[in-house]
Amino acid sequence: MKVNSDIVLHIDHVHKTFAGLHALADVHLDIREGETHAIIGPNGAGKSTLLNVCVGVLPPTQGKVMFHGTELTGLKPYEINQLGVARVFQTPEIFGDLTVLENVMMAMLSHQDGAFRLKLVSRFDEQGEIGQRAVQALRERGLGEHLYHLAGALSRGDKRRLELVMGLVQKPKLLLLDEPTAGMARADTNATIDILRQIKQSGMTIVIIEHDMHVVFSLADRITVLAGGRVIAQGVPDEIKGNPKVIEAYLGEEQV
Amino acid sequence: MKHTSKLADIALLIGFAIVVALGPIIFTPIGAGYPDLLQKFAIYGIFAIGFNILFGLTGYLSFGHAAFLGVGSYAAVWSFKLLSMDLLPAVAMSVVLAGVLALAIGFVSLRRSGIYFSILTLAFAQMCYNMAYSVLTPITNGETGLRVLRQDPRYLDAAIGYVSPTPSLFGMQITGWTGFYICGAVLVAAFGLSIAIFRSPFGMTLRAIKSNQNRMGYTGYSTRPYLLSAFVISGMFAGLAGALLAATDPLAGAERMQWTASGEVVLMTILGGAGTLLGPVLGTGIIKYFENIFSAYNEAQLKAMFTFVPDGLREPVVKTLSLFVGEGWQLTLGLLFMAVVIFLPGGVMEGINRLIGLKHTPKVRSLGDSPQRDGLGEMVIEEMPTHDRTAEIEKNAAEQQARATAP
């Protein structure tokens, strides 16, 4: 197979079975440099499983995942993150007992110093310009007033924004977003779309798993539709909108 | 802007050093102003400080830390027997050996977390304890305990013609008040080291592991080497304490490695406040005070104290109270421990902080539980929905109106 240099993530005929249940069946998918690629599908379609296979939580039963020519299969989550893949979770995963600023600084330090470096003599609050860059990144996303609050005390929406900032400060080559607007009110969803649009315009490659079609059609360059663990359609938003298989998959879900 | 400043930390260390230096004066009024007990305060303080680096920062509860204390003691006594009566080689040997043992035990135990980690460490420590009594008798001298003898070779001392009847530091005998000040100086150094570790990027990494280990992986950290480093460092502190224990009382017995000794350091740390700088030292002071002073009271002393109570009442009062002192000191300690854990989960330090109103951010992750947190949480949540946008729109509208009416 020809290796295409502008392919960031190459999901190569991945299968995943859980005790006989086919969660993913022959999923084949390329994510191109700079695109925003949405993965959609009804509940239980295998979207989250696919994401977990990509970040190393679940090993695929068959097939492999390549990131810029490096095989991700068998790598640990921290190795995959160090390669430049940042993940934002559906339920915010942050360091609740640390302050908001410390959360972001931790994310920056791991990419400055690598996965392990014993720094015993210097002080955490005197890490050169990292602190300033973290403060600036937080202010840009409207978290400037919470710098010294414990992250665990933030509202759900702010936790999500914090997690997004933690991903962005690592300057990832690929950003994986797991339902970034799940459970949000319409106004917040729109605010999130605006933020994601800005990120997209900076040229970042984004994979977004989303339920909300409004979000998907306002952001995605290309869409992959999963149903029952299989890719049932793939293409630009306009192709997906009119695809009878997609309509059937979604209508089928609604009838249940 | 910063939560902690370098200056505040230096002030804390200096204050700590002054309290240690004034120890004999401070502890005399409460009946603890004698050198042997104050040496114990200092030595077990070092042990607890080290334990707190592991448990307080990472949340990994080791139930086998006494093994490192015991190995430190044996190593020190062997150094006194074979090398020199001086403390420095003994400390070096103890710290290195305890570190190597911690590396081995930590390497295996840290494959698991939570209760499984605790059980693994407990199992290893009990193995060490039993081996000291059985197969390792040639090294540990079994039940009799390992002691320093006059005819031991001491090659280093022999080479330079130095003779000292008891362990010493640069010729100063480690007994009495000199012994306390040597132990106290090491305690201050250990405390300073613990401040540095707490404030370092390494310390923050350990805190982040405690807060959300899962997230660490997705943030690009390999957590295992960090945990292993913390485990080894805390084992080395225990080895250091073991060396001092052997220096003040040059008879090393296996009972120092028993699980009760491991449990004691857990109690000390939790009682004082795990994860705080001063907590472990305070907890050590309280427990060692109960163990040595409270246990020494007897009925006659109580009767003397309650002479002001009318005759008929005195007998029942003394009878009741005598349950809690003397041999019953552990009952009092148990009640105190329960009270602290129930009312002050952050230990004595939480009580102190509440009293002086230093911190209003208890360490809970959810929004529940604490009134302060609830207040903060609600405030933040109420801000959310109306965020920026409405204010922006209103501002824009006002500006437009202003522009329209201006000309």
Protein described:
The complex is a heterodimer of chains A (256) and B (407). Chain A contains nine helices and ten strands. Chain A is globular, with a radius of gyration of 19 Å. Chain A has a six-stranded mixed β-sheet, with helices on both faces. Chain A has a four-stranded antiparallel β-sheet with strand order 2-1-4-5, with helices on one face. In chain A, α3 crosses α4 (130-140). The N and C termini of chain A lie far apart (41 Å). By secondary structure, chain A is α/β, with parallel strands linked by helices. Chain A has helices at 47-55, 77-83, 100-113, 130-140, 156-168, 186-201, 213-219, 237-241, 244-255, and strands at 7-18, 21-32, 36-40, 62-67, 70-71, 85-88, 174-178, 205-209, 222-227, 230-235. Chain B is an all-alpha fold. Chain B has a domain at 31-292: ABC transporter involved in vitamin B12 uptake, BtuC, CATH 1.10.3470. Chain B has 20 helices and four strands. In chain B, the strands form two sheets. A two-stranded antiparallel ribbon of chain B has the order 1-4. Chain B has a two-stranded antiparallel sheet with strand order 2-3. In chain B, a hairpin with a 2-residue loop joins β2 and β3 (172-173). In chain B, α3 runs antiparallel to α12, α10 packs across α12 and α13 packs across α14. The chains are: A alpha/beta (256), B mainly alpha (407). The interface between A and B is large, with 54 and 49 residues.
Brief account:
With 256 residues, chain A is an alpha/beta fold.
Main attributes?
heterodimer, A: 256 residues, alpha/beta, six-stranded mixed beta sheet, four-stranded antiparallel beta sheet, 10 strands, 37% helix, globular, B: 407 residues, mainly alpha, ABC transporter involved in vitamin B12 uptake, BtuC, two-stranded antiparallel sheet, 20 helices, 4 strands
CATH topology assignment of the domain at 31-292 in chain B = ABC transporter involved in vitamin B12 uptake, BtuC
The number of helical elements of chain B comes to: 20
Biggest sheet record of chain B: 2 strands, antiparallel
Q: Quaternary arrangement of the chains shown?
A: heterodimer
Assigned CATH class of the domain at 31-292 in chain B: Mainly Alpha
The mean pLDDT of chain A is 87
- What is the CA-atom radius of gyration of chain B, in angstroms? 26 Å
String of helices and strands of chain B: HHHHHHHEHEEHHHHEHHHHHHHH
- Largest protein interface, residues of each chain: A-B, 54 and 49 residues
Question: Going across the major beta sheet of chain A, what is the strand order?
Answer: 6-7-8-3-9-10
The structural class of chain A is alpha/beta
Structural class estimated from helices and strands of chain B: mainly alpha
Give the end-to-end Cα distance of chain B, rounded to a whole number of Å: 46 Å
Low-confidence stretches of chain B at least 5 residues in length (pLDDT < 50)?
360-391
| Tertiary shape of chain B | globular
